[in-house]
């Protein structure tokens, strides 16, 4: 009778390196980074840390425990440990995990973790073991071990990349595309895009393409969130900006003002201005600059 093949457990390894730069205790900084192939049932804790500590699992599986929950994790998962909270984590006895990690602290550390979507209620992210997160963690470790010039600054860049990728994974894993929070987020993205781009002759189609949504969906959620269509909102934004220029920049012609708010046709600009405010741009200018 054939015996089942026994899985080979890889030998345990450990490597860590500290940030060779020291910008100060109050500055956001990556403290150290590392990687390890753990031994079966390798356990840390229960214990607390005084910094943020993020692990990302490349292979194997294990359990992460916090004061609020227990999470069984495997390749492609990451977990965030927050300062002053009791945690423990243990690799599986048969498929011990191999993970990479980094620690960070300083001004804005908590805000960065929250911006990425991590909290005591959401300490875990699920992604890909071959994505940008493990690569970034490996790059930080290499820069620290080699004591590269500017390693601390490079580590900060990688930290933001890691948190951005974690945020994408958390949002895609939990977002309800019809939920109120998601709609508000999309509307804010659209308003920010219009506010920064109104001076250019952008179209709604270009905006939808830039944000990665189809026009029908964006129009629907935007109207639900603001009460007006994206076309109307963008046009009103341009006309309101033009009112400011008509009042405060008498040296500019009507044509120059129209071009400055992304409307290249002065006649169209005049018609739309009258539509919103009941008078021609030239009439409005005379009324606000008298005296």
Give a verbal description of the structure.
With 291 residues, this protein is of the alpha+beta class. It has two domains: 13-174, Regulatory protein AraC (Jelly Rolls); 176-291, Arc Repressor Mutant, subunit A. The protein is 45% helix and 20% strand. The strands form two sheets. It has a six-stranded antiparallel sheet, covered by helices on one side. A four-stranded antiparallel sheet has the order 3-8-5-6, with no helix packed on it. A hairpin with a 4-residue loop joins strand 5 and strand 6 (70-74). Residues 174-178 have low confidence and may be disordered.
List keywords for this structure.
single chain, alpha+beta, Arc Repressor Mutant, subunit A, 2 domains, elongated
What does the secondary structure layout of this molecule look like, with pairings?
Elements: E1 13-18, E2 29-37, E3 43-47, E4 52-59, E5 61-65, E6 70-74, E7 77-81, E8 87-91, E9 98-105, H1 109-116, E10 124-126, H2 132-145, H3 151-174, H4 180-197, H5 204-211, H6 215-226, H7 230-248, H8 254-260, H9 266-277, H10 281-289
Antiparallel strand pairs: 1-2, 2-9, 3-8, 4-7, 4-9, 5-6, 5-8, 7-10
Helix pairs in contact: 1-3, 2-3, 4-6
Work out the helix count. 10
Q: Tell me the CATH topology of the largest domain.
A: Jelly Rolls
CATH architecture of the largest domain: Sandwich
Instruction: State the domain count.
Output: 2
> Please, what is the CATH homologous superfamily of the largest domain?
Regulatory protein AraC
| Main sheet strand line-up | 1-2-9-4-7-10
Largest sheet: 6 strands, antiparallel
């Amino acid at each position: 009778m054939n015996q089942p093949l026994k899985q080979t457990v890889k030998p345990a390894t450990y490597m860590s390196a500290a940030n060779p730069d020291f910008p100060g205790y109050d500055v956001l900084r990556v403290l150290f980074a590392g990687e390890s192939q753990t031994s079966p049932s390798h356990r840390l804790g229960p214990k607390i840390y005084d910094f943020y500590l993020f692990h990302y699992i490349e292979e194997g599986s294990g359990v992460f425990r916090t004061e609020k929950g227990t999470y069984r994790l495997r390749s492609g998962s990451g977990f965030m440990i927050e300062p002053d909270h009791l945690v423990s984590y243990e690799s599986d006895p048969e498929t011990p995990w191999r993970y990479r990690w980094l620690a960070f602290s300083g001004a804005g550390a908590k805000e960065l973790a929250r911006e990425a979507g991590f909290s005591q209620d959401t300490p875990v992210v699920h992604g890909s073991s071959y994505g940008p997160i493990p690569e970034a963690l490996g790059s930080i470790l290499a820069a620290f071990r080699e004591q590269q010039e500017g390693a601390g600054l490079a580590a900060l860049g990688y930290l933001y990349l890691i948190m951005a990728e974690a945020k994408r994974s958390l949002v895609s894993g939990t977002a309800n595309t019809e939920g109120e929070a998601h709609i508000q987020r999309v509307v804010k993205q659209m308003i920010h895009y219009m506010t920064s781009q109104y001076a250019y002759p952008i179209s709604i189609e270009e905006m939808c393409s830039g944000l990665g949504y189809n026009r029908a969906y964006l129009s629907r959620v935007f109207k639900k969130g603001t009460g007006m269509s994206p076309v109307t909102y963008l046009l009103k934004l341009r006309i309101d900006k033009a009112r400011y220029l008509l009042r405060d920049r008498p040296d500019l012609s009507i044509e120059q003002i129209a071009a400055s708010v992304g409307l290249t046709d002065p006649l169209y600009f005049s018609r739309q201005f009258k539509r919103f405010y009941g008078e021609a741009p030239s009439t409005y200018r005379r009324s606000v600059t008298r005296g």
